[in-house]
User: Fold this.
Amino acid sequence: MSRPELDRIRHGLDLLFIGYNPSLYSAQVMHHYAGKNNRFYRILYEAGITERQFSPFEDRDLL
Assistant:
């Protein structure tokens, strides 16, 4: 069941990542790609998509 208060899609996005099957830890802390071995935020930074490396707990700040 969808939980609208958790939606991260906004008008005017330049890039949208679609993930599936979150880790148990990500589901528990309710932040995307939060597993300790997940490289998502590091890869965003290394690819030049973000100015710095974000933590999973800053996922909302990427909007």
